[in-house]
């Protein structure tokens, strides 16, 4: 990390600069389980952190408040599921299946009809970046857990890393902010967990570590390595168990030189939980975005099977992870404040 980057992020997390707002027509949607009358289908992805004209980012706190301060959700514990990683690797595509699961309440064949196009977060095939900043889906999903308590579930999309328009410091800022504010961060990778993937992760999380103020808990919560297009089935089978085996090998410190050992120890100490899931190739039509509708017939059967398994492992009623700060659950109202103090206004 450059000294300039360290100074910038430190200033962001501790400054009391006034926020700049822009008008936003954001509604709060209450999608309750077992109450179809309250289910709203016209939600949208709302930019809450967006690029400004000065080459940095700004926060739309007004949008956060409109989404999360409704009387039915403001005091509910919040679950924030975010997806981050390199650009053009299917993050928004994946989030739309999260959205489909939440809207169907996880019941029956929630993957949908064969002819149903994939809707929600905007996605497409191609080589250019598609998402910028940080987006939050403006439907808040109220879920009743097995103990009878309710939590509010949010879905977050992030700008892809390593495009040709964004600096490394800006990429680190987006990744760190989404990791700090989420309860589950999905680290979306292509084909394998490479050494540079671990180096990038450690670099990005160092930004976030600087915003933490001590405490006995790991600075971040659950990180899921999602390896897309995994082809090495002779080494590890698709799914969670194969993924955990690969992750254990990648993070093993035995026989590593000192630098590689330190990197792995830092990653392990940064998160309260680390796991991995290996996904098969989705099929040529999905991979190329032709056509860009995401209908089930475009996908390989093995991909659909493991997609179902992965989504349910994150969003099932008994799998949800609430956002915690120093071990204490955070409500939607508290999360707005927590996000706001990590305001982004980097000047280059």
From TrEMBL:
Keyword GTP-binding appears in the UniProt entry: yes
Keyword tags: GTP-binding, Nucleotide-binding
Pfam families, per database record: GBP
Keyword GTP-binding: yes
InterPro entries linked: G_GB1_RHD3_dom (IPR030386), Guanylate-bd_N (IPR015894), P-loop_NTPase (IPR027417)
PROSITE patterns, A to Z: G_GB1_RHD3
GO molecular function, one term: GTPase activity
Ranges for domain GB1/RHD3-type G: 75-319
Stated family: Belongs to the TRAFAC class dynamin-like GTPase superfamily. GB1/RHD3 GTPase family.
Name recorded for this polypeptide: GB1/RHD3-type G domain-containing protein
Source organism per UniProt: Haemaphysalis longicornis (Bush tick)
